[in-house]
Amino acid sequence: MSEQTQSMGYNAAMGLALTEEMRRDDSIFILGQGVATGGWFGAEKGLVAEFGLDRVWDCGISEAFEAGLAAGAAIAGMKPVINMGFGDFALIAGDEIYHKLAKWRYMHGLNVPMTAVIIFPIGTMGGAGPEHSSCTEVLGMHFPGLKVVVPSTAADAKGLMKAALREPNPVLFHSVQSLGWSKGDVPLDPEFIIPFGQAAIRREGSAMTIVTYGSMVARALEAAEILAGEGIDAEVIDLRTLVPLDWDTVLASVRKTHRGLVVHEAARTAGPGAEIAARIQEEAFFDLEAPIMRLGAKDVPLPQQVDLEQACIPSVADIAATARQLLSI
C-alpha cells in the first residue's frame, strides 16, 4: 500500500472516497438535496462534473422516499449513497431505515448483498438548533441489520466510507458536523480501507481507559494531556464503528487500566455509553477497581445560541474533571 498522503478536510476526504469508489464501481450513485452542486457541506463537490447527473441526483426534501429508494435500489443490485443532510431526519424515514433497510435481507431470505450508505451528519455545528444537531447513532445500534459508523479524523472519514461502499449490509454513516472542515493527512492509496469493528488506540495509558468516538476523540486526547501533567496516564480509545463494536480492544484496555470512562456527544441518558458501560461491567467486573462512568450531553434540546450549545456537551474540562473523579473512587 502506498504511504503517500495529502492534507485535506474531513468532508473532502469523504468526497475522495466517493470519487475513488464511483470510478471503481459504476453501480454506485448518489442522491440527496443539493448533491449535484457539491452538497450542503461540500462532500459531493465535483462529483457531477465527473460522473454526470445520471449518477449524482438532486432530490427534494423527502427523506422517506430517499431511504425507500435506497432499499429498493440495493435489492436490485445498485449501491445507493443517500445524504440526508442531518442525522435528525432519520426519524422522518424511520420505517424505511429501521425496518426495510435493516430487516429485509433477514425477513425475505435474500441471499444477495444489500449495499446502501445513508450519510447522517450529526452533532453540534455552531448553533444549528435542536432539530439539526442531534446525535442519533444509538438508533442504529438498537435495530439489528445495520452497520453504524462515526469517523473522528479525515483519514478515517475516507477509509470508513470506502469500507461502507464495499459492505454487503446497509450502513448508517454518521459524519460529524463539528469536524467537517478539520484537516488531517489522508492516504491517497485507492485501496486504503479501514475495516469495520477495528477501534484505534489514540493514546496509550495505564491509569484509566477513556472510550469515545467522533467529536469527543480530540477533546478526550486534550484532556488526557492535561491529566498527564498531573501524573494521571489515561488511555484513549476511538471506537470508529459502533456496529460492529471492537469489544476485544475495549475490554483488553479496561482489564489493563482497571477503570473506564465512556464519553460521547450524544445525550447521556440511554446513549451509546449506557450499552458500552453495561457490557464492560458484565464482562470485566472482577478487573474493575471502580464503576464505569459515563459522560454525555445534558438531557435538554440543544440551544441555538452557540455558547449555550457548547455548555450542553462535554468539554475538555468536563472530561478531565470526570476522569479525576473516577480515579478518586
The secondary-structure class comes to: alpha/beta
Helix content: 25-40%
Listing every helix as H and every strand as E from the N terminus to the C terminus, the arrangement reads EHEHEHEHEHEHEEEEHEEHEHEHH
Helix count from the secondary structure assignment: 11
Return residue spans where pLDDT drops below 50 for at least 5 consecutive residues: none
Categorize the overall geometry: globular
For the largest beta-sheet, the strand count, sense and barrel status come to:
7 strands, mixed
> What is the residue-averaged pLDDT?
95
Number of strands: 14
Q: Per DSSP, what share of the residues sits in E-state strands of 2 or more residues?
A: 15-25%
| Terminal-residue CA separation | 46 Å
Rounded to an integer in angstroms, the radius of gyration calculated over CA atoms is: 19 Å
Task: Please tag this protein with its features.
329 residues; alpha/beta; 7-stranded mixed sheet; 5-stranded mixed sheet; 14 strands; globular
Could you explain how this protein is built, in words?
With 329 residues, the protein is an alpha/beta fold. The protein is built from eleven helices and 14 strands. The strands form three sheets. Strands 3-2-4-5-7-6-12 form a seven-stranded mixed β-sheet, sandwiched between helices. Strands 9-11-10-13-14 form a five-stranded mixed β-sheet, sandwiched between helices. Helix 4 links the parallel strand 4 and strand 5. It is globular and about 60 Å long. The N and C termini lie far apart (46 Å).
Quick recap:
This protein has eleven helices and 14 strands.
Element layout with pairings:
Blueprint: E1 5-9, H1 10-24, E2 28-32, H2 47-51, E3 56-58, H3 63-75, E4 79-83, H4 94-107, E5 117-119, H5 137-142, E6 147-149, H6 154-165, E7 171-173, E8 183-187, E9 200-203, E10 208-212, H7 216-228, E11 234-238, E12 241-243, H8 247-257, E13 260-267, H9 272-284, E14 293-297, H10 306-311, H11 316-328
Parallel strand pairs: 2-3, 2-4, 4-5, 5-7, 6-7, 10-11, 10-13, 13-14
Antiparallel strand pairs: 1-8, 6-12, 9-11
